[in-house]
TrEMBL record:
GO terms for cellular component: cytoplasm. This is FAD-dependent oxidoreductase. Residues 5-356 form the FAD dependent oxidoreductase domain. PANTHER family: FAD-DEPENDENT OXIDOREDUCTASE DOMAIN-CONTAINING PROTEIN 1 (PTHR13847:SF287), SARCOSINE DEHYDROGENASE-RELATED (PTHR13847). Coiled coil: none annotated. Keywords: Oxidoreductase. One of its GO terms (molecular function) is oxidoreductase activity. One of its GO terms (biological process) is mitochondrial respiratory chain complex I assembly. It comes from the Bacteria.
Amino acid sequence: MKTADIIIVGGGVMGSSVAFHLRKIGFDGRIVVFEKDPLYEFSSTPRSAGGIRQLYTTPINIQLSRYSLQIYKQFPQTMAIDGEPAEIHFRQNGYLFLATKEMLPSLKKHCSLQNQYGVPSQVLSAQELLNIIPELNIDDLAGGLYCHEDGYLDPYSVMQGYKKNAQRLGVEYIYKEVETITTNENKVSGVRLVDGTVYHASIVINCAGAWGVYLSEKIGIPLPVHPLKRQIFQFDVATPLKKELPLTIDPTGVYFRHEGSKILSGFSEDTKPGIDFTVTRSLFYEQMWPILAQRIPNFEAVKVTAAWAGLYSFNTADHNAIIGKHPSLHGYYMALGFSGHGMQQAPGVGIGLAELIYYGKYKTIDLTPLRFERFAENDLVLEDAVV
């Protein structure tokens, strides 16, 4: 009989963070992580834009991101193995929401809440924006919300850092696909793999990202989550910018940031739910490029050098994560539905879920607002600004 104490389905950044933190706080039982994609070719982690921001509008998300940012600042040192730093290329170039006159009152309210939780965000005037991006067209802007602490990093390196440290602490990774979670009456009993092999465990954590909703549905627990394609385009500019960009969100929703000497840009376009990795270059040329060129004249002459698509585990109810244990299926835990925020919140969620399992309660951050039961209780976590 193949057994484990804890099984984690999904070995991306979230599953690996949970596994690492379980070991870190003292859990010494057998932890097995199942990951169906050994090269992480289609994993959402390495396909993300890597943005790290504290500019949220709900207390729980602000606290999660503030905690995680502090972890990422020290990540190379604290996650080093045999003296080799776990470099994640964290660039604290800031995060910037551009605003029209109509948007500015809301941003001022958001800034006040963020400041209450220690986030050094500030509302800038249109003229002050030029100190950050000298080339910016501010004709239609009234200002922006900016945080200099925020920025962006290499998501794949973060995932590998958590994974390697988890393995160093004895966590096992098995690169096989889980067909279903198995149950016995009102509790989980393990997982069955696609090849028919059964592993027994009293705790199963669903960290399967965009695929996690399908696993949950198979055991009769539907979630308001579906996979949603998101595309990213990388391009060169003929005339370089004077300063490195913060991760900047235009009022239209188009975002852009530096990636070395190149620029990354994306947009939450309307798309059908489902597993889809096709790249539609017309999205860039027809919808995004006109906006980019209008906002920064340097973007009028560009050359697309790469493009890819990844998947959001998109929560249709309130666009926020579902974290914790299921109220009636004992031993079933979830960290799903991050809607593009997973990389930003992985350190905080990892320690929180580990504490809930090991201690029976949250200690570092109270993640109760993100519980599964909030949907039935109509106690949703609603952000004013969704990216």
